[in-house]
Amino acid sequence: MNKRQAILDTAVRLFAAQGYEATTTLQIAREVGVTEPAVFYHFKNKESLFSVILEEALNVYLQHLDAVDIETSTPFASLELLIRIHFSIVAEIPERMSILLRTCPARLEDPQSTCTKVYRKARSTLKTMLGKILEKGMASGEFAQIEINASANMLIAMLNGLMRQQIAAMETLDGVESATIAFCKKSLTNPEKGTSRYVTASEVNA
Amino acid sequence: MNKRQAILDTAVRLFAAQGYEATTTLQIAREVGVTEPAVFYHFKNKESLFSVILEEALNVYLQHLDAVDIETSTPFASLELLIRIHFSIVAEIPERMSILLRTCPARLEDPQSTCTKVYRKARSTLKTMLGKILEKGMASGEFAQIEINASANMLIAMLNGLMRQQIAAMETLDGVESATIAFCKKSLTNPEKGTSRYVTASEVNA
Amino acid sequence: MNKRQAILDTAVRLFAAQGYEATTTLQIAREVGVTEPAVFYHFKNKESLFSVILEEALNVYLQHLDAVDIETSTPFASLELLIRIHFSIVAEIPERMSILLRTCPARLEDPQSTCTKVYRKARSTLKTMLGKILEKGMASGEFAQIEINASANMLIAMLNGLMRQQIAAMETLDGVESATIAFCKKSLTNPEKGTSRYVTASEVNA
Amino acid sequence: MNKRQAILDTAVRLFAAQGYEATTTLQIAREVGVTEPAVFYHFKNKESLFSVILEEALNVYLQHLDAVDIETSTPFASLELLIRIHFSIVAEIPERMSILLRTCPARLEDPQSTCTKVYRKARSTLKTMLGKILEKGMASGEFAQIEINASANMLIAMLNGLMRQQIAAMETLDGVESATIAFCKKSLTNPEKGTSRYVTASEVNA
DNA sequence: GATGAATGAGTGTTCATTCAT
DNA sequence: TATGAATGAACACTCATTCAT
After folding, report:
1. Is the CB of A192 less than 8 angstroms away from the CB of B174?
2. For residue B168, what pLDDT is reported?
3. Do residues C108 and C119 touch, judged by C-beta distance below 8 A?
4. Protein residue nearest nucleotide E6, by CA to C1'
5. Which of C13, C97, C115, C153 is the mutation pick for testing D, counting most D CBs within 10 A?
6. How many other C-beta atoms can be found within 10 angstroms of the C-beta atom of residue C161?
7. What is the pLDDT of residues A24-76, one digit of tens each?
């Protein structure tokens, strides 16, 4: 019924599978079962079709980030959720994330492109959150003292890299999510007072 | 004088600045100061021009990795060098790395593409090295016990993300390199010999 | 309220400002505040919209010509009025005249086009009037003896050119109207009764 | 042999016969016997093909104007030549003049268009010449005293209208050229001293 | 080695027009 | 009356690639 949505869905599928450039508006139209001008009736041009997809993906991402309640959770719990989000969103909207992570890199040179805008918005939102989490953790003593800005940038790069890895999926990635969480926990958190104890390497192996 | 090299250099510059698709063979030819067919005399087609660039970048990367002497260095020193390499190579050959990291993502769907081959080779080499480093570190007691495969994958994703971040360079990235090294050090290494360190109960359970 | 008239008015404005080809039916509809098919409800097609405009302009023109009373006025007074009409009509309905004088030239090749029909009608009416005026003037001795047909054609071309000049209006045209009247007066009329005027030998020979 | 010229010639023919908008680049190519991209190899785009034609026409026009030697000829002889030029150029390059006079009117709204530039150049050159001629004639006593600027504008409009009339050629225009010259002569020139005499209307008829 | 000229196969896009509702 | 949706038929234009010279 809703041709607009059908066009959008098909475009998502094709852009994800073949890339933006390799997908033609005619191909999209044919797969939807309409004529090419119908695509241009619903969307101003090919670019705008792409932009709509990107903005949808951004909205989903921002909604997920919104679910992280930095105020009431412990800092590391917030960070852990943040990490999990970056894994689950790829599983949830893989095609849109694939478009975001695969087609956009070629367009970041252009500051006017929707890609650049979406990246900036996503990055700045994430960075603000990471900043708050690290600050709160360091203030409460849960986290060790680190340089917030540089660490936040590093974590962003890491999360970004992890999403990309899932999309490329050149091999099975079992355990990467928990390895990441453990890795960050060990690096960031101070031992909990009163509940920690000395442990040797051999003991851990057991 | 060497037209082939001039074509290659110009192609690198333009592919990096505008992306592969947005760069035309005519544009390359004009900027070099030759005619379009001259490009096709030196290179079979546009794709092969791209492949040569990619392979050059891969070789530079592999040479850098080769410089890491896992046998004689301590595991963390090796890892640290590995991290530094991923920062310095972007500074060294920024255009080629930009092409690699920006144009390739759109092509990884195709298993025959040079991009895919280059990515696989780079990834597998890096993964092997990371595996050896982690193994050696855990064996010597320098590193805590972790799941090698998942951790290596995570580190690859992280290094990849860090290179991308440098290329996109949406903000100044001062201190990210040392933050990364510090972050990994804290997470991976056990307290130095003769001492012990705090471990949380949850970590032991994990 | 009268949608038909609103469409017509908007079409006049846009055709005059941008030309017929450059104006789309969608644009007309949007500026009127209706949908595109509404335009086609009121007018058979874009062409017919254009034709209606042209015929309106023709009617206004013919009405003005009708006001010239050749019988009761002196021949030159008639001619003067005719000249004034060709100046005032452009000021009166500038957009319609602009359409007539700018869009039509490209269509005169086609004998079926409304443009051609309108031009023929306007031209033949004007020519008949000029013929009568010249004839009457020569008969009464007010005008010098000239070749009626060729002179009428020349005067038509002149009037046409003057209207065009006003529409293009590449510079201020102060005084052109009176210069034209004076020019024609001097050329056409004999010295007033009872007097004679100078005539060159070559003129007599001609 | 010279495809570029063949394309240009065909474009001239088709633009003149059908107008710019109604002529497609594919049609031009087919009539020349090449493929469509060949047209774009020789000319940047359809517009530039049009511009080249226009500029050629302008050059021919300016060359003709150049042949008028205001310094050594008498003022009216110069004007007469100017009038004759506006008749003969239409006979000489009718297609190019047709394009100039039929396609351009629709484009004069755009100050950047080649049409506007060509019109301005042609008009200003002609106006300068007319100004000089009238001035010289009035200074020498050959011409009656008139307002130069307004009269020049009127003459431009007349010449323009006469060229248009020839192009449209809705009827045979025998005698219009000499009628125009006679008309201007009578209007502009004073009776020659010493050689003129009184003539009655009836005498002229004889 | 290099070029001028050309092309096949597309590309996104436009636009007047139609028709079921 | 009027519209939302759609379309047929084109359009200018691009680009990697080829080939005779």
Report:
1. no
2. 85
3. yes
4. D38
5. C153
6. 23
7. 999 999 999 999 999 999 999 999 999 999 999 999 999 999 999 999 999 99
